[in-house]
Structure formats: C-alpha cells, structure tokens
Amino acid sequence: MCGRYTLTAAPEDLRAVFDWVEFPAQMRPRYNIAPSQPVAVISNQDRSQLDFFTWGLIPSWAKDSKIGSRLINARGETVAEKPSFRAAYKRRRCLILADGFYEWVKQPGQKNKIPHYIQMESKEAFAFAGLWEIWHAPDGSEIKSCTIITTEPNTMMANLHNRMPVILPPASYDTWLSSEEQSRQELDALLGAYPPEEMMHFPVSTLVNSPANDVAEVLIPA
Predict the structure, then answer these.
(1) Annotated catalytic residue: which of 2, 94, 133, 146?
(2) Active site residue 142
(3) In a 3-state reduction of DSSP, which class is residue 102?
(4) For 109-133, how does the pLDDT look when each residue is reduced to its tens digit (9 = 90+)?
(5) Nearest-CA neighbor of 166 among 75, 59, 35, 30?
(6) How many Cα atoms within 13 Å fall on the side-chain side of residue 52?
(7) Quick check: is 2 catalytic?
(8) Stated pTM of the model
(9) Which uninterrupted H or E stretch holds 14?
(10) Catalytic residue from among 94, 103, 133, 146
C-alpha cells in the first residue's frame, strides 16, 4: 500500500529528471501528501504538461465521488481485470511524481507503529506508475483523479510492509505514457518491484501521522 508520500524537489530538480515537461517557476514543497488531495501528474493525455489530479480514482461509471477514497491504490496483479481499473490500464496511464513515501512499521511489544520514510539513495525525484480517469459530476463539473499501482515488495521494503508502490524506471516512461493502447503483457512487465539497492529508509517523526502536518519537520529522523 502507499497512503502518504512527498514531493519536495524544486522545479529545476524535477526538470533534470523529467526533462520533456514544462514545470512552473515555483512549486510548494509537499512533505505529507494524503489521499483526496491534488497531486502532481504527467498523463498520457498530454505528456508535456504537468497537471494536478485528485488522489483516489473515481471510475467514469461511479454514481458519486466517494468511491475515490477506497481507490487510492490498485494492485498490479489484478489491475487489468478489476472493473474500476481495467479501462484506465489500457488507455489512461500517468506518472505520479514523488521523491519519497512513508510506511508505518509495527514494533514488537509496542502498540504504536513507527513511520519510516523511503527514498532513493540519490534522493532524486521519481515516478509512481499511476492510472487516471475523468468523472462527470451531476452538476456538470468534472474531476480528474488518479491511483497509484502497488506490487510485491523488494527485499528492503519487505522489512517494512508486504506491498510497495510501483516505481517506474525512466526507460519505461515512453511505454507507460503512450497514447496508444498497449498490450497487457508489455504493461505487466513494468509492474515489478524497484531494485532495493537504489533505495533507502529511516524512521521519522510521528508528526507525519496527521495529514495536517505538511511541514519539513515530519522528515526529521526519529
């Protein structure tokens, strides 16, 4: 599962990783991104444009938007089959930009879980594999929403949780962002766990437990 993450990188650092995208001159650093909030994405609708979608996918057929709170993640093993995700998997894929994410770890003999922050050893920004949809509300407005695909953990993440978000290597961005329908076999091959030797983690402040605490202090090592 992935239920909280960060995007603190400055626009110039994001341009270094996603060099085909236009980024605004200023972006507010986000230290505690939570479901239902706007998140930075690059979609296959316009791959040169940074956009902001609501985190929590609302299928086009949904009767109301509340379903999005239950669809913040999509399991990679079943994403091609589940009614909520299968159309988007074929046609509406996106990169969800991040530079780290959180996982809560249960400690033996303790009631409270300890939050850990996971990032690249390089500390560079990266992209989760995402899906997106457009939902038309009864009042005529529309909501663009997204979900993060998850997979089995790598050996590092297995010490923290039994799932991890799919982090796409840059070499796969072109395929993932293709505007054409891709074969399931080609897409499924991209949904593996990211190499553990390129990642690191450390325990952080329990301030992160509240989404209201979107401040740099949440990343202070515990």
Answers:
(1) 2
(2) no
(3) strand
(4) 788 899 999 999 999 999 999 999 9
(5) 75
(6) 11
(7) yes
(8) 0.97
(9) helix 11-17
(10) 103
